[in-house]
Each structure stands twice: as C-alpha cells, then as structure tokens.
Amino acid sequence: MKRTLETDLIAWKNQPGRMPLLLRGARQVGKTYVVTTFGESHFDNVVSINFELQREYLACFENLDPHHIITSITAISRSHITPGKTLLFLDEIQECPQAIMSLRYFKEKMPELHVIAAGSLLEFALKEEGFRMPVGRVQSLYLKPLSFYEYLTAQNYDALNDYLSKVTLKEKFDLAIHNKLEKLLREYFVIGGMPAVVQHYLQNKNLMQCQMIQAALLNTFRNDFGKYASHTKHKYLQAIFDKTPAMISEHFRYAEIDAHMRSRDLKIALEQLIDAGLIYRVACTNASGLPLNALINEKKFKLLFLDVGLVKATSLLDAKIMLQEDLMLINQGVLVEQFVGQELLANSPSYLPGQLFFWEREKRGSSAEVDYVIQINEKIIPVEVKAGKSGKMRSLKIFLEEKKSPFGIRISLNPLEFQDGILSVPLYMIRELKRLVETLEINLEKD
Predict the structure, then answer these.
(1) Is the pLDDT of residue 86 over 70?
(2) Which helix (H) or strand (E) holds 375?
(3) What pLDDT digit, counting tens, does each position of 378-399 carry?
(4) From CA 350, how far away is CA 281, in angstroms rounded?
(5) Whole-number pLDDT of residue 126
(6) One-character DSSP codes across 11-57
(7) What 3-state DSSP class applies to 370?
(8) Where are the beta strands (DSSP E) in 13-166?
(9) DSSP state of 253
C-alpha cells in the first residue's frame, strides 16, 4: 500500500545536510513496512535491525562511534553497508537507548550514511530520566493510520483522488462520483485506516474477519500496557483506553472514567496513552491569535482515538447498519467527528506530531462551541461538523462575528459550495481544505 509519507522520505534522502531520521507513531500503523518499501525502491540494499527480535545487536552500540558500530553490524549480519547506497534501518529502537544516542554521532561523523530509526513506544524511551535526546542532530517524521486519500489509493481509485484534487467551486460536482465516494466513506468508517485491516479487506472483502483483526489490534495495544506500567497502573490505562471511544466529541472529565479512581492517577495514564499515540488530545483554544497552542485552556479538552475503524469496533455496531444508514447520524455523530479529526491529523505536515483544537465561548445565556479550529497559512478558520441540510450554524456564526473571520467551514455530506460566509465541504474532501481555502481567499479579494 502506497503511503504519502514516501514523498517525504524521498525528500529526506536527497536533502543536503541530511540528519538521521526518527519515524514515530503508534504501533501497527505501518512504520516498518513503509521504511522497508522505501529502502528497497531507492537504495542498493537495506540492512534492518529489530532490537526486539535481534538482541545480539544491542552490544554493537556500547561504543557510540559510528565506524565501530558499522564494523560490528557488518561482521554479525554479513551484509555490506556502503554510505550513499545502503539504508540502515534500526527498528524498535526504544529497546536500545544507546542506539538513539548514537544517531547524533552518525550525523557528525558519518553524515553520508542514510539512517532511519523507528519505534512504537519510542516516546517513553525519550522521556526516561537521564536520557539525553540528540537535539539538532535528528529529524522526526510521524506516521498515522491510512487517510481516506490513502485508502482510495489502496483501492486503485487514483482517478477519484485526481478528480477531488481538481474540483472547484465553479463547477457542479458529479453526482455519480459523489455517490461512489459516499459508499467508499461508509466502507472506511467500518474498516478504518489500520494497515492490517485494510490489507485484509482488499484481499478478502470479508468484514467479519476485519472486525476480528480490529479486536486483535485492540488487545495488542492493551498487552503493551505492561511495557510502560512502571509509570502507572494497568487499571488506569485500561479504564481510559476502554472509555475513550464512547467519549469522543464530549468534554473530558476524569470522574466519567471512574468516580472511584483518583484524577491524579488517571491523568498520568492519559498522558501515557497520548505518548503511545493511541489517543489524541483536542485542546480548547481562545483562537484570538497564533499560535493556537499558546492560547489554550489546559483544563478543557476532548479526546480522539487512534482510528475510526477501531472506534466503530468498540461500539459493536453492526457493519451492515454502517453501510446503509445516514453516516452523519450514526452513533450520535461520534464517528464523523472522529473521522474529521483523524483526517485533519493525517493531512497535517508529517514533521509535526499533530495538534487539534476546538473553540468554546462561555457566556451566560449564550454559550457557543465550534468542533475544530484550524490554521491555514496565517488564517484561523473555524470548522463545524454538521448533519443534514438544516444543521444549525449558530456557533460558527458567533465565532465569525467575534473573531472577525472572513469565513468558516462546514463539513458534512452536502455539496461543495460557498454561501453566506460558509464554505461547505463534503467529508471526503478534507484533504483539499488548504487548496479550497487558498482559492476562495483569492476569489474574495477579487470581489
């Protein structure tokens, strides 16, 4: 399956002054696959070390000198490592903190060698007491589950992606294409973007078996709790992990997890799950200026789960219902809000871990809340996720008036259009937001 991150990996390979690369992201999102595929396509050979499975390589990094390390690896692996022609891939690098520290010296003493490291629980190693991250000597990229764009690519619907990349407000959207995209969206809401599930569906088209794989993935994540339980107890991790899918779109309150658990313990567990990439925080921002994260209320936030397909799996909703009912209304719109947030993250720059924001105004007799607030270039833009043609836009209009914003965005299954200061964007076009906004700004300036 082709991942858009490959474009960034190619740019990294050809970049002057290139640094060793850390590929970060949750377990099972496809880090090993994307690096291996990239390496096989763009290098003469790939030398891969998995520190979880190949413990004998740990001793190679007792000395941090790159030349010593390469000599040891070459002797053990019987592989040739030629700078400029070989990709050295250090997988599950969190198992070898010395290897993480050695990346600095690869940059300083052997910059011509291409080195990529990856690790599912890497964030925990980086936060260990006494560990020193080689700041300024390592570049990071973040991989997330397949976006809807990547899902279409995996299904060989390149023509649909091409159509979406070119359609504008000036032309009527093709109804047949809209219907097909809505059908594929329904599939994606069931299957999600976890590579193992997508791959199985492409090969077998068996939704029941896809649900079994999703259940296995959820158990894999739960089994990982033991790897970072030194910082928190299993029961707190388990409670938040299991409750989060049902709390999407709601303001997070520790008491709703378990009234008998201390907020302090739950807070530690929540941070651990965020570090693991299993949960994302949606922060409440004042949205009065940039950067958005400088104006947040740390006590107010919402949560998103890793993947919409996994959220659906935890809800135990019948897949047949998902393929037939109104997408915007299923499960009170929770899946749609998860999908929109997930798409915003997936289509953000890969060199950023991904941040999401919402806006809330608390005023007696006139409260208002906007689902997401995004930054496109230097503009702050409110985004509402709405069901049906008559979905109220009161909060969005309050935001536009208070913040003097030129327009807002409504995401639904309605056609692409601009009317009364609202840019209406179909769910399947979230990837095109930046292009659509930039084009709209040019048109408004002309008018």
Answers:
(1) yes
(2) strand 372-376
(3) 999 999 998 544 446 889 999 9
(4) 18
(5) 74
(6) HHHT-TT---EEEE--TTSSHHHHHHHHHHHHSSEEEEEETTT-GGG
(7) strand
(8) 21-24, 45-50, 86-91, 114-119, 139-142
(9) -
